[in-house]
Amino acid sequence: MALSTEAEGPIGPAEPSAPAEHFDAVIAAEQRIEPRDWMPDAYRATLVRQIAQHAHSEIIGMQPEGNWLSRAPSLRRKAILLAKAQDEAGHGLYLYAAAETLGVDRAELTEKLISGRQKYSSIFNYPTLTFADVGVIGWLVDGAAICNQVPLCRCSYGPYARAMVRVCKEESFHQRQGYELLMTLMRGTEAQRRMVQDAVDRWWWPSLMMFGPPDGDSPNTAQSMAWRIKRHTNDELRQRFVDMTVPQAEHLGVTLPDPALRWNEQRDSWDFGEPDWSELQQVIKGQGPCNAQRIDRRRAAHEDGAWVREAATAYADKSKGQSSE
Ligand code: BYC
């Protein structure tokens, strides 16, 4: 896609430095950079990296829950889970569309994902062992996603920020359905309560890792904050998530698996233990419990869908031919 290198806007004549000045002024004024605006190459590359990773996460994120679609315990639970997975497919599509405004092609991004050259969220490399995992993913994973994504609605890049508004509304529904499922299980039998606790024990630490490495080990945060792509650091959002979640765990009647968790009056926040950062690095490198399976399935789905893409292209070509006759 050809992209304009000229700034558009009220900043005066197009002198060599004008586009960069326009970019800096827009960022400083908390306004939005739009696809046709000039932007530094590194800003564009950072956005492509983050938005593509985000889109891939939505698409791969359908797999752990998809595992329970055919085994949901009731028609109602199945309908809810199907709707959630469909929302996630939609989020992936908005995000790929946002990435395309930066001059990359969705097919190219998919190729990079399935060849291991682009990442997706570490959280989706853990197995879903029981139906309680569906509830815990909604409560903790979607809860963490909301903490991370609400500030992205104020991201400096217009198409990403606007996509996030709708995504966040749907994520709120996802989180509530998870919490409601867990409340129902907690009102059930002793075995159901144990199932919930077991799922919380397995998903708590990976959920904290979703926010990325600690600030001291996060190479991208400082620049992304300066460009107002990220509005908070990884550690700030992780703390916000813990503070939001501890009272919800109490209300639910589950124990979060962290002996270091205690209220800190001075900080007006919860102190919590250190996640196992070496585990995060292993999972990001592709050595988590389900990395290979997730990518194999994604690759197979992509290959199985080749005939649909071919048919759609042939149909579009044919329609173009007919309309020009
Ligand atoms: N997993 O410098 P840092 C959902 C990478 S889906 C994997 O802090 P940054 C849902 C990072 O990419 C929601 N990789 O990076 C869907 C970087 O590597 P590269 C997914 C991670 O970008 C279905 C390196 O580590 N959400 O909600 O400043 C069902 C250093 O990190 C992770 C998003 O994608 C990780 N956890 O900050 C249910 C949100 N953490 O690229 C739910 C958008 C770090 O330099 N993304 N890395 O090779 C972000 O907000 C930021 O990209 C991150 C990382 C906070 C994740």
TrEMBL record:
SUPFAM superfamilies for this protein: Ferritin-like (SSF47240)
Gene3D superfamilies tied to this protein: 1.20.1260.10
Q: Where is this region: Disordered?
A: 1-20
Q: Which InterPro entries match?
A: Aromatic_CoA_ox/epox, Ferritin-like, Ferritin-like_SF, PaaA, PaaA_PaaC
Superkingdom assignment:
Bacteria
Query: In its UniProt entry, what is this protein called?
Result: 1,2-phenylacetyl-CoA epoxidase subunit A
* Taxonomic lineage from the root: Bacteria, Bacillati, Actinomycetota, Actinomycetes, Kitasatosporales
